[in-house]
UniProtKB/TrEMBL annotation:
Higher taxonomy: Eukaryota, Viridiplantae, Streptophyta, Embryophyta, Tracheophyta
UniProt protein name: tRNA pseudouridine synthase
Gene3D superfamilies hit by this protein: Pseudouridine synthase I, catalytic domain, C-terminal subdomain
Catalyzed reaction equations: uridine(38/39/40) in tRNA = pseudouridine(38/39/40) in tRNA
Similarity comment: family membership: Belongs to the tRNA pseudouridine synthase TruA family.
Keywords attached to this entry: Isomerase, tRNA processing
Pseudouridine synthase I TruA alpha/beta domain residues: 24-131
EC numbers for this chain: 5.4.99.12
């Protein structure tokens, strides 16, 4: 592994089957209840565990694999847990068709039997896309801010 990338990528000591990982990643796309992929200590903080994953790509870039996920939103450690499961599938420790079964259980304990959470190495937020109507000001709000404007008229500097 390139030592300059050690803080920015996750190093797998196993040879990974990218075809199996791609097949498994397809099961994540669509609208699903991702309760099984949120860490239990934060499960109560998300009012709606149903998220829509638009795409989950597994791209080979020489010796590196780039996993790219795009969705309507993510739960606490959801992506890290999905990647951890894909790594186990890539090692060929479990079959790709286990993903729909784990999604159906909606139980984090079932996922923990097969994969622990992946470390955050290499995980980065690439972009955030907002629905334009959510960015509009509510009706009745002024178009400009009427916040306070302060000017300094006197400045006293204590000298010691």
């Amino acid at each position: 592994m390139d030592p300059f990338l050690r803080h920015y990528v996750y190093h797998s000591v196993y040879k990974l089957n990218t075809l199996a990982m791609r097949e498994a990643a397809k099961h994540f796309t669509g609208k699903h209840d991702f309760s099984a992929f949120v860490n239990a200590s934060h499960n109560d903080r998300s009012p709606n565990p149903v998220k829509n994953i638009f795409r989950f790509d597994v791209n080979e870039m020489g010796a590196l694999l780039q996993l790219e996920v795009e969705g309507s939103g993510f739960l606490y450690r959801q992506v890290r847990n999905m990647v951890a499961l894909l790594l186990q599938i890539g090692r060929e420790a479990i079959p790709p068709n286990i993903v729909p079964w784990i999604l159906a259980t909606r139980d984090r304990k079932e996922l923990a039997k097969y994969a622990l959470s992946a470390p955050p190495h290499g995980l980065c937020l690439m972009s955030v896309k907002y629905n334009e109507e959510h960015l509009q000001l509510p009706s009745g709000c002024p178009a400009t801010s009427h916040g306070r404007h302060h000017t300094v008229r006197k400045c006293k500097l204590p000298f010691y």
